[in-house]
Amino acid sequence: xxxxxxxxxxxxxxxxxxxxxxxxxxxxxxxxxxxxxxxxxxxxxxxxxxxxxxxxxxxxxxxxxxxxxxxxxxxxxxxxxxxxxxxxxxxxxxxxxxxxxxxxxxxxxxxxxxxxxxxxxxxxxxxxxxxxxxxxxxxxxxxxxxxxxxxxxxxxxxxxxxxxxxxxxxxxxxxxxxxxxxxxxxxxxxxxxxxxxxxxxxxxxxxxxxxxxxxxxxxxxxxxxxxxxxxxxxxxxxxxxxxxxxxxxxxxxxxxxxxxxxxxxxxxxxxxxxxxxxxxxxxxxxxxxxxxxxxxxxxxxxxxxxxxxxxxxxxxxxxxxxxxxxxxxxxxxxxxxxxxxxxxxxxxxxxxxxxxxxxxxxxxxxxxxxxxxxxxxxxxxxxxxxxxxxxx
Length: 392
Fold this sequence. Notes:
Blueprint: E1 10-15, E2 22-27, H1 32-46, E3 53-56, E4 63-66, E5 72-74, H2 76-85, E6 88-91, H3 103-116, H4 126-139, H5 152-159, E7 175-180, E8 186-189, E9 192-195, E10 204-209, E11 213-218, E12 221-227, E13 235-236, H6 243-248, H7 257-265, H8 270-283, H9 305-316, H10 323-336, H11 341-353, H12 365-372, H13 380-387
Parallel strand pairs: 3-6, 9-13
Antiparallel strand pairs: 1-2, 4-5, 7-10, 8-9, 10-11, 11-12
Helix pairs in contact: 8-9, 8-10, 9-11, 10-11
């Protein structure tokens, strides 16, 4: 159960034959990027790479075609992984003939599921499940296999120093694709939609599809990062990607799917809503209905668009200032009844520096009258520049 939804997951398992120490990682798919990422997770947690052969079934992420005997036509990406970490592969015979050749890891899969995944776990995310599974692997160091005198952890302590060292460079398990950004500033990857900055609509971006992440790049620069969706047909939209459009069309913010997603994730906090409501009330003349619906759905219409633009300006500050500082800046602006994004920015920077912004002091009426009475500037002297031949 992930976030209240029943899901079928797949488990990557790598087991050391001598000690029986194993690494278990859950994935939402059996794609090659998950298979490759499982190796990276396992080697990192073991602290080394087996120096001999790793035994495999004839699974598609590694094998393109079964040839005669033990020969296999391997996938190029899997060959690259083996070359990077410096290990060889050994494949079981297809069918019932090879059923006994990897009984250790087959039995480990069932044992781990019965001991640690029964009853069905209830977690908030796939990452949370993998943290729990890693903790279960650590607890299993204290168990004994059959009638062995030493524990798994004790046997692993003798075995792990014999592993090969991890290579210095990093291996990228992601699948690299190219995707076109649609009119809604989304890219479609594996039947799920992810937002990118609205300015990229109609262009192509480079996509790195990882086991758990999606990274989009344009002109070599990262423009969007998302957690990989666990379900098909979903939308993962980031409100920041649409702010430039919402600044021109503030009325679209109230019903924006990206705003609903930001509320659900906690990125759009109650303080944001409080600032928005106060800014709209301040921009709506007394005795008129600005088309607002209070704090229930953040509706905007008619005269309160200025308040929504102020909120958009504050949301743009998140690109350069930390969240706690902006929260403090909005609270200070609400207290001063000043809903200009520049006021929030100044208050946020004062929060970072540990100072308090000064409240604005209104000018006395006499000073305002004196300013209004100033004569207009005379520009006749600038005409002499034209007759002097400047710029010729």
